[in-house]
Amino acid sequence: MSSQKFFDKLKIQLLFSGPTLFAFFTVVILPFLYGIYLTFTNWDGVSTSHSFVGMKNYLAVLDDTAFWTSLYKTMKYVLLTVILINVVGFFLAYMLTTEIRGKNLFRAGFFTPNLIGGIILGFLWQFIFSNVLVYIGEHFKIGIFSSSWLADPDKAFWTLVIVTTWQYSGYMMVIYIAGLMNIPKELLEAASIDGANAFVRLRKIILPLMVPSFIVCVFLSLQRGFMVYDLNIALTNGGPYKSTQLVSMYVYQKAFLSQKYGAGQAEAFVLFLIVAIVTLIQVYVSKKREVEA
Amino acid sequence: MSKLKIMSAAVLSLSLLLAGCGNSAKESQQSEQKKTASSEVKITFLNSKGEIQAQLEEAAKEFSKENPGTTLEVIPAAAGQSPFEKVTSMYASGNAPTIAMLDPGDVKKFADKALDLSKEKWVNDAIDGSLDDAKTEDGKILAFPFAVEGYGLIYNKAVLDKAVGGNFDPASIKTRKDLAELIGKIQKTGVASNLLSPMDWSLGAHYLTIGYSVQSNKFEEVEAFLTNLKEGKEDLTKNEKLNGLLDTFDLLKENNINKKDPMSGTYEQGPELLGKGKVGLWFMGNWAWPQIKGFDTTNGNYGFLPVPISDNPDDYGNSQISVGVTKRLIIDKEQNSPEQQAAAKKFLEWLVYNEKGQDFLVNKANIIPAFKNITLEPQDPLAKSIKAYMNNNKTLRSMVTLPPDHWSQVGAFMQQYLDNKIDRKQLLKQIEGYWKSQQ
């Protein structure tokens, strides 16, 4: 009887989740496993045959200093963008949940950059950094803008951070606004009757209650930061002289430009492990800080 | 009851979905059968020369008109995407193009997929050396030489005429000293002498590789030089020719119009500066003509100067410019039917021997063909200049079969050198390091 029930349940289950599971399995799981398999070969991406090379590709990853440099740059980029995106996003959300005029217009405005694709954004900002700002800099004699930021390795790195922050803070703002609206008004009211000023209310009530939103936003910005590719290729194209080549772009070029598919795939797998570990730690640690209202 | 309803609804929708799939599958099968029944052949052409996409589509129409029953579809490879990337993904999806336009260095990787073309008629009419890097050891010819391109220092004759006070003769520049004097003269007229564009492909694939070509006028020796580099047996800091080339680079760098901010230049800047006569010299190739034409102020008076590598006028490389086959076509034999392969062969033949095919190559697409039988004269001044160097046998063989990431890696080193971030010794050590990692 119970096994009959089990099969009934399974049937219903499969009926609804089966198609999705099938799609997930064929387009995510299978390529993932096949990719891991390829890391043990010396395939170049096209030839019909390839041979096993064992752990050679993974040893090559350890030896590839350029990979670790680009990973280090990516870490720096992720750290900076995660902080900036969330600080700016939270600040915007906080401002736009107070009683200011035209807040819906502002909300829409700050969210808009997120609707434009990374490639187009990259080209847009490339024009701004190398033409508009240079023009303004030369015209008004502002030293810092007088030459293109994209031509200088350090400044080019900052252009990536700036554009990323601009692009995603609006998105995070929406999540924070949702979080802020969910904070029970009576708590804030009670606190202000008890004499808590705005800062104390923010620190003691709003921030602790916003932890779920922070978890989501930090997770999203972490993961996007590690995986950034389109903006990287459209804005700086890794230049000048590969100084802003972030790790996704590096891995892609290793596999498809240098035509070392196995080695590139091995680097991608290492990257996957690192990103998985970092994001899991983040979620685990911040889950502990969640509180109930 | 409600469960039953849900179930039946789901089953119904699922069966609808399946039926939909089944139908379309059947339909496509039928249409395919129809095609073969009326002996229609459809072939595809992957084009990786974006600038001639429109002209190619025109040519495809012409070709179909003359060969009823054959249609040719031109598929563009996205700008900035390497043709290799595009073709491999097309192979992986079981949808390989009948004809694929590849970079010469990638051709050999398709050895087991490309049709042997050694029995084709055009093989005998191809210019000397144009098939070398498409030949396999057992005598197969894997690819058709589609375009010959060359590069060097493009000059604006109006600017140079003014600088030398009279008619400028390109043959008068034979040494670095000559070039330095010319640069001085140009600057005296109040115009910047030259532009050195900072693109990695220009510096890595074109400028630096002259240093490989000039190692010897025998190509086997150049190849031996590269093998030695791979094995770490070459000390580039002591290599006179490469250092000579870099001395010329220093000269160009010192007089670069972008000297203050050398990395800020873009490709788009070049045609405008040269065409408007704001610089006298620009290091680039004949593909830049369509863009230069847009800014031309001298009635098309342009030509190439060699990049001198020493002060001895007789040194190999001082009067030669770098020329080579830069695009090749392969025909797929793995995923295309014999009829399609035959049609593709016909198209290649059409390009070489049919009047309209030749007209497309030379006049419409501004390509310098690699065939002796095509007597049409190129229309644009840069192609004419290259033709002249070729006719006088004053060419260096372009290095087109280097490792696939050479241009990008070595290009980045050259950019650092251009931006004064590293010195000569570091540059040469990095290049040595790159080659050693290629083993």
Automatic annotation (TrEMBL), chain A:
Main location: membrane
Top-level division of the source organism's lineage: Bacteria
UniProt keyword terms in alphabetical order: Cell membrane, Membrane, Transmembrane, Transmembrane helix, Transport
Pfam families listed in its UniProt record: BPD_transp_1
Compartment(s) where it occurs, according to its Swiss-Prot or TrEMBL record: Cell membrane
The keyword Transmembrane appears for this protein: yes
Protein name: Raffinose/stachyose/melibiose transport system permease protein
Upper lineage: Bacteria, Bacillati, Bacillota, Bacilli, Bacillales
Automatic annotation (TrEMBL), chain B:
Domain of life where this protein originates: Bacteria
Alphabetical UniProt keywords: Signal, Transport
Protein name: Raffinose/stachyose/melibiose transport system substrate-binding protein
InterPro entries according to UniProt: Bact_solute-bd_prot1, SBP, SBP_1_CS
Keyword presence, Transport: yes
Pfam families xrefs: SBP_bac_8 (PF13416)
Signal peptide: 1-19
Protein family membership: Belongs to the bacterial solute-binding protein 1 family.
Record keyword Plastid present: no
GO biological process entries: transmembrane transport
